[in-house]
Design goal:
Distance between the termini: 41 Å
Largest sheet: 3 strands, antiparallel
Strand order of the largest sheet: 1-3-2
Structural class: alpha+beta
Number of helices: 5
Number of strands: 10
Strand content: 15-25%
Length: 173
């Protein structure tokens, strides 16, 4: 069975069920509903062609979700963590959930750049000459404030080997 991640949206729905609400079957993703049904934590209520879900044992469900998805963190804390309302780093995730990869984080914000000839660039109010040594690239850590001249053609390259195929023009990679 594929291991799925518990999003803040799904956690909020489970939180509502823990508080005694019954949810229409269409609001809960089928993979988590199936899992909770197989564990005997969820019951299906039918009203004509409509189905809804109700938790059978809230305490057991909290324990199951904590063990399987949140590393022991409460659902409310899990929602806070996964919504990114605070500065998160892997250390916080390890302390809170025991798993540094429980929630997808961008550890490096920015991009690498390279060029064939020196180019004038700016970050915030500071200008500088972009001229990486051969065999290196420069990491731009503040992409929202990075500026280059309008006459520079930007080419996105995923495979660094392609960089060698483009020669001597005013390009920023």
């Amino acid at each position: 069975m594929e291991n799925r991640r518990l999003s803040a949206s799904i956690a909020r729905k489970i939180q509502r069920m823990l508080e005694g609400e019954t949810l229409p079957s269409s609001t809960l993703p089928s993979w988590i509903a199936q899992e909770l049904l197989e564990e005997g934590l969820l019951s299906v209520l039918s009203k004509g062609s409509r189905k809804s879900y109700r938790l059978i044992d809230a305490e057991a469900c909290m324990q199951y979700i904590g063990n399987r998805y949140t590393g022991g963190a409460t659902l409310s804390r899990w929602i806070e963590l996964s919504e990114g309302n605070e500065e998160l780093d892997r250390g916080v995730l390890v302390r809170e959930t025991g798993d540094s990869k429980a929630i997808s984080l961008r550890t490096f914000r920015g991009f690498l750049v390279n060029c064939y000839e020196p180019l004038e660039a700016a970050i915030r109010e500071s200008t500088f000459t972009l001229s990486p040594l051969e065999g290196t690239a420069l990491f731009i850590q503040s992409p929202e404030t990075f500026r280059i001249g309008e006459d520079i053609l930007i080419i996105g390259i995923e495979n660094g080997e392609n960089f060698r195929q483009i020669r001597r023009q005013r390009y920023l990679f």
